[in-house]
Amino acid sequence: MHESEFGFDFHRLPRMFQPLGSAQIRSCTADFQVDEILGFEPSGDGEHLFLQVRKVDQNSLWVAGLLAQLAGIDRRDVGLCGLKDRAAVTTQWFSLHLPGRTLSAADLAHPDYTIMTAARHHKKLRRGAHSGNYFNLVLRQVSGDIAALERRFNGIGRHGVPNYFAEQRFGHAGGNLHEAQRLIDSGRLRGNRRGTGMYLSAARAWLFNLVLAKYIANHLAGDEFPDAETGPLWGRGRSSAQGSARQVEDQVLADWGEWRHALEHAGLTQERRNLRLLPGNIDFKYLGEDQVRLQFELPKGCFATAVLREMGELFRHQMASL
Asked: Looking at the structure, do residues 95 and 204 belong to the same domain, yes or no?
């Protein structure tokens, strides 16, 4: 098994800051709320019906399937920007391709979700079409100095945190990475092979995290962290990294030739991702009784866990879903 010094464990990746305490997350569904930010207004006309849907403890793809069934259309004619946490209260947008047809919110109602807004648009929603997500999180059993936690959170709002791909991308105990390794070893991790997309995504994200971890280790050893730098999302094509950035990436990824080769031949093209994540619209509120509310906005493709882990150690209620 080809693993790094961290194994395939997201939690072992280095932090920028020392934890200030600990806190429980997701003690109940309402403690984790996420609102998708579309970033544009539906045009008001067109062949697609846009729906803003609120769901509680529901899977995004399950809701998409219900909408297709109620609308009498193929599941492929339902678009969405991305998957939202199941164990949460979330709002997100879906599009339904309904040329020449008019359906009301009542026609598409179901107990598993609530339709908040409906509007027509001329294009289908695609993955990543939104601009970001707004998080409203309650942390309970918070240990540590509350004033210090608030200062840390405000500092994160000014200076940012490492833009890690978080554990959701890698599955329980890094399972998606172990499966990616198995597929790579057998020569079956291919972009055109059905069902391997999540493993390609996990492999690509892990290589990025390893590069980012090296920058953090260098920073902790005294180097300046390159706030404006980007890291690799591996694929076919020449890397745009130059100078010291190229040296770091070559050093970290030298032993990952099989993974890089698999990604290059899976239909993915070389891309870049910011090393620093800067949350917006942040707000910290102490609720009393060792409870804190954190609110912040993140760009699409970024993870709340990357913010929370730079404040303290997190643990989940025994019965909470991952």
From this structure: no
What residues act catalytically?
Answer: 85
Which of 257, 277, 297 is where one domain is finished? 277
Predicted TM-score (pTM) of the model is: 0.91
Boundary (domain end) residue, out of 77, 105, 129: 129
Answer yes or no: are the C-beta atoms of 29 and 56 closer than 8 Å.
yes
| Distance (Å, whole) CA 281 – CA 189 | 40
How far is 48 from 120, CA to CA, in rounded Å? 6
CATH number for the domain that contains residue 247: 3.30.2340.10
The two structure tokens encoding residue 316: 């989940």
Digit-by-digit pLDDT tens for the chain (322 residues) are 467 789 999 999 999 999 999 999 989 999 999 999 999 999 999 999 999 999 999 999 999 999 999 999 999 999 999 989 888 999 999 999 999 999 999 999 999 999 999 999 999 999 999 999 999 999 999 999 999 999 999 999 999 999 999 998 998 889 999 999 999 988 887 665 566 788 999 999 999 999 999 999 999 999 999 988 999 999 999 888 899 999 999 999 999 999 999 999 888 899 999 999 999 999 999 999 899 999 999 999 999 999 999 999 987 654 333 2
Q: Which two tokens stand for residue 155?
A: 């500092």
